[in-house]
Design brief:
This protein is α/β, with parallel strands linked by helices and 302 residues long. It contains 9 helices and 12 strands. Helices cover 38% and strands 18% of the residues. Helix 9 links the parallel strand 9 and strand 10.
Length: 302
């Protein structure tokens, strides 16, 4: 197995992954949070103020482009004191935001919520990756498509900043055939043949299987990836080894392990014959990283 790829944040700016359309999403977040009168804004007014963005729990910083855009739409500026993907300990002054007091507070909760979730996902992702690398695993650690509707871009972005693979972004990004597809067509072979006829050569086909027999059928039908779903322990490793040995020189494919993977059992699912480990534990029910935004009080009048 080849050496693991370096973190994306070391090779480029993750913000350059984002489509232009996401800025409209930010606008909708702000509209949701202030659909009518800004009562608090009436209290603070529009004097120019400075605010400190503080990281109050240890974590990996992720979500800068979203915070930048939130405050940009409110005519505020953000000066970051840490790069995207950096680890920090509390309490850390991660950024300074400048603008009109009312505008700073209009963006406060939207920015904090987004940053907290994105950083939480990046932190958990980095922890999973570090654990796997420490165990000698050189394959891919990936998230899943079990993301929050309307917030997928933020969550997938957090996975990438954390250093893992975001897996398929949507139903159009890659073909994944699960039990419902197989039952609908009658067999794994029929399902693979049907989807290959329309997906063509440019999309990989990932087939979820429940047994070694099903894995053999999927590989024989031309699957690019075989997902050994909920197979654990000795059964997982013996099956993956036999599959690699049996099909060596005949078919090229990857083996993915998934289902029920948490930090506590992560290492037990790893081996040289496993190419991909995918888990929703890095983004579902993840602990958010606590941030706060504090306005700097104006100088006291003499």
């Amino acid at each position: 197995m080849a050496a693991p790829a370096p973190l994306a944040v070391k090779l480029g700016n993750p913000a350059h992954l984002l489509p232009l359309s996401w800025r409209a999403t930010v606008q909708s977040w702000l509209a949701e949070d202030t659909p009518s009168f800004d009562w608090g804004g009436f209290v603070v007014g529009e004097e120019e103020r400075e605010a400190r963005l503080l990281g109050k729990a240890a974590g990996v910083l992720a979500g800068q482009p979203f915070v930048d855009e939130i405050f940009k739409q409110l005519d505020c500026t953000v000066e970051w004191h840490l790069p995207e993907g950096a680890s920090f300990d509390p309490v850390k002054h991660v950024a300074t935001v400048r603008g009109k007091a009312r505008h700073l507070l209009l963006g406060e909760r939207v920015a904090l919520n987004t940053l907290a979730r994105c950083s939480g996902i990046a932190t958990k992702s980095r922890r999973f990756l570090d654990t796997a690398r420490a165990a000698g695993f050189k394959g891919i650690i990936a998230g899943t498509r079990k993301t929050t509707p309307g917030f997928r871009l933020v969550e997938k972005y957090g996975m990438i900043v954390g250093g893992i693979d975001a897996h398929r972004n949507d139903l159009s990004s890659m073909v994944m055939l699960k039990d419902n597809h197989v039952w609908s067509t009658g067999s794994i072979t029929a399902a693979v043949e049907a989807v290959r006829s329309v997906a063509g050569f440019s999309l990989r086909i990932d087939v979820e299987v429940q047994s070694e027999e099903e894995a053999d059928e999927a590989i024989g039908a031309g699957a690019d990836i075989v997902m050994l779903d909920n197979l654990e322990g000795d059964a997982l490793h013996a099956t993956s080894t036999r599959l690699k040995e049996r099909w060596a020189g005949k078919r090229t494919f990857l083996i993915e392990t998934s289902g029920g993977i948490e930090e506590g059992n992560l290492v037990s699912r790893l081996s040289d014959d496993i190419d991909i480990l995918s888990t929703s534990a890095v983004h579902q029910s993840v602990q958010h990283i606590d941030f706060s935004l504090k306005l700097v009080p104006p100088p006291k009048k003499a």
